[in-house]
Amino acid sequence: MSDASRAEVCVVACAEAWRGDGAILASPTGLIPRLGARLAQLTFAPGLLLTDGEATLLHGDDEEGWLPYRAVFQLVAAGSRHVMMGASQLDRYGNQNISCIGDWARPTSQLLGVRGAPGNTINHATSYWVPRHSPRAFVERVDMVSGLGYDRAAALGAPANRFHEIRVVVTDLAVLDFATPERSMRLRSVHPGVQVADVLAATGFAPAVPDEVPETRSPTTAELALIRDRLDPEGLRNKEIR
After folding, report:
1. Are strands 56-59 and 62-66 parallel, antiparallel or unpaired?
2. Which of 32, 174, 235, 240 has the fewest C-beta atoms lying within 10 Å of its C-beta?
């Protein structure tokens, strides 16, 4: 749809991260990833499990089961979860920082701490949502590793890294992945109205760029109706991306 907003394109890009996952637990962090997961569940991924953020399993707007907190760890350990987290910093191999800015011994800014990032990235598929694509977010080297990237996972070796997968990174400018021989970040698509040069200027390292970079797909008419009329009628999505 040509009249789709940038936020709506990002919702669909986030939804696509769960395509083909089957009956696993989707754990989105943030409004646009959550809208994306719900859109995926209502369209091409009906087997996705989603919770209300506590213990109730949801399908669309309906409650369909109970998932106590202890059961989440069973899914995590089995690799049956795909989380989409945020990232204050990401490097070319997908190492993520949500802990601090500056030297760990004396940081200039204290952030969330590592939280569940180490366990998430080593135990199951992980994607990232970065609403402000900038050189401050995409850096040559993260100040502290919270979530493991491909270089560190490779150093661990098998079987410790058997569930490690960083699927995609969705930003307000583009979708990136790690489909390169060395598993470094690659530009998968640019959102409508964004040029490749815009993404490169907003990235603090040189990602791999294919000869042809496609445009991120826009929502279909049906998807746009779901986003606007059912999932987010108040239009909060448009406040997350300026």
Report:
1. antiparallel
2. 235
